[in-house]
Amino acid sequence: MPSRHLHRRKKRLLLATAISLPLLVGVILLTLYLRLGTQPLGEAERRQLAGRFKDVIERAGGSQVWVKEPPYAPFPPPRSNAAAEVLVVAATFDAALAALRDQAEKAGLEIKTRITRAEGRWRLADVRLTRGREPAGRWRLREVGQLRRATIIIDDLGQDLEAAHKLLALPYPLTFSVLPHLRQSLDTAEAVHRAGREVMLHLPMEPDSPDRPGQGEIRVGMGASEVERIVESDLASVPYAVGVNNHMGSRATTNTMLMGEVTTVLAERRLYFVDSRTAPASVAFDVARRKGLATFYRSVFLDDTQTVAYTLGQLREFRRVLDEQGAAIAIGHPYPTTIAALARFLPELERADIQLMPASRLLQLPEVARLGPRRPTSP
Questions:
Q1: Cis preceding linkage at 76, omega within 30
Q2: Exposure of 69 by Cβ count < 10 A (0-12 exposed, 13-18 middle, 19+ buried)?
Q3: Are 266 and 231 within 8 A, CB to CB?
């Protein structure tokens, strides 16, 4: 009898163990899962996730979205609860928000979205991402009527390397146009490239005045082979150039045949062209567009008068043009007054939701293809 009773007790004990052991293992696994799931994101993982979300938003919205990020600074914002801000044109708002939600689902993140309307019109989506109880990111999608994009080109570089370094110290994506065959042309182009900024060739072209634009000049009457040889030589002295704008050229840019030769050479090398519009009757932009080049034109000169006050006034005029047409180019020079005015004004562009970008990016925007310079009116 005692042995039979003992046998029954062992049997019950084994049965209880068989039932409780899987439950215990399950509790342990669930605890581990919850602990792992609520661990704070490491900085590297947080940046990787933010990069993926940025990519899907930009793919969904194309040129109609702008993920605002400090130029030449880490992205996303350093604090996990700080929102990454996105400006989205109204027609693309739903697609951008849907892309963000889809990416959250793929990443296994929980998403909470709160949509309000600013001034009773434009939508504002506050999107919070979490993994377990830990924040995984925050995005703020702001609907706008249009995006405004700006390029500022600094001409006449290659003469003074110190001025180039002062401009490079400004944490904004200026575009640097370098004159060829000067003592500092090569060093300037290399310094600009190392800093991650865009290099252009500032191509000397014949003016109406007796002034000479310097070595490597393109003149009316030159044949195709001579134009090609000079442009090749100029480009060789300004490495990393991805585009060209004219230096002087009030006579050359009004000559359709000559500009046809110039733009043919540029098209063969897949370089873009910006018409500095040193002559109201310039045909350079029209010829370049017919040739199929990525092309645009200068709207504002910043520093015909070398004072900070004058350049600030021209920058405000530049902003007015941007409000009117959505995209524009301003051209300045490496004068101390211009550098001082830019240092003061460029943060205002950022606060006004105006995106500053290199010329090559601006020229790829669909809206740029629909714009053209004002034509001179007959007296």
A1: yes
A2: middle
A3: yes
Measured between alpha carbons, how far is 262 from 254 in angstroms, rounded to an integer? 12
Q: Which of 278, 261, 180 is nearest to 220 (CA)?
A: 261
148 - beta bridge partners? 354
Task: Please report which residue ranges of 205-268 form alpha helices under DSSP H.
Answer: 224-237, 256-268
**Non-local CB neighbours of 300 within 8 Å, separated by 6+ positions:** 314, 317, 318, 321, 328, 329, 330, 331
Report pLDDT digits (tens) over 153-176. 999 999 999 999 999 999 999 999
Domains and CATH numbers, the chain: 43-144 (3.30.460), 148-370 (3.20.20.370)
Residue 139 makes CB contacts below 8 A (sequence gap 6+) with 53, 57, 83, 84, 85, 86, 100, 125, 127, 129
Residue 83, φ and ψ in degrees, nearest 5:
-85, 135
Residue pair 192/168 in contact by the 8 Å Cβ criterion: yes
Residue 116 burial by Cβ neighbours in a 10 Å radius (0-12, 13-18, 19+): exposed
* pTM for the full predicted model: 0.87
